[in-house]
Design a protein that fits this description.
The chain has 169 residues and is an alpha+beta fold. The chain has six helices and five strands. A five-stranded mixed sheet has the order 1-2-3-4-5.
Length: 169
């Protein structure tokens, strides 16, 4: 098994794994990300995410991904957020997930992150067991807040705030 940093040419396979994850999580309709979005956001002038891929053989098909981005904690400073760790169903239980997780931990260490965070669905017992086996802390106290794209567009903001944001950008 091989782990390497993701490349732009990997994105079609990465998006397919993201869609596979959405199917597993019973939410395939929620994937609105596109290949063009991922190319811009991962390899454009201001990349906002990175990823690692797992392969059974060098230059073979991608059988797992770990996608992460840098975030900031007001209490801790720089942190990495592991957005998704996906291993194809056929490769689960082979140690590949752990190797991908190790790559993200090494990236966090290398980048000077003070924290590595991720989320796991409360019903995803295999994933919960995986993270617990790694010694991770799963925090039951925090709830996740979300605004959808439609909610962002409809959210009432003070016009003066809108102007200040546009002028600062």
């Amino acid at each position: 098994m091989f782990i390497r940093r993701g490349r732009e040419a990997d994105l079609p396979q990465v998006l397919a794994l993201i869609q596979e994850l959405a199917e597993y999580e019973k939410a395939p309709q929620e994937v609105t990300n596109t290949l063009a979005d991922m190319q811009r956001d991962g390899f454009g002038p201001e990349p906002i995410f990175g990823f690692f891929v797992a392969l059974e053989v060098p230059e073979g098909p991608i059988v797992g991904i770990a996608l992460y981005y840098t975030a900031y904690s007001t209490w801790k400073g720089r942190m990495l957020f592991l957005e998704d760790l996906v291993v194809t169903e056929a490769m689960r239980g082979t140690g590949l997930g752990r190797r991908l997780f190790e790559a993200v931990v090494a990236e966090a260490r290398h980048s000077g992150a003070h924290r590595l965070r991720w989320q796991v669905l409360e019903w995803n017992e295999p994933a919960i067991g995986f993270y617990q086996k790694l010694g991770a802390t799963l925090d039951p106290e925090w709830h996740n807040g979300t605004l959808t794209a439609a909610q962002i567009q409809q959210f009432p903001c003070d016009p003066a705030v809108e102007v200040a944001v546009r002028e600062a950008g």
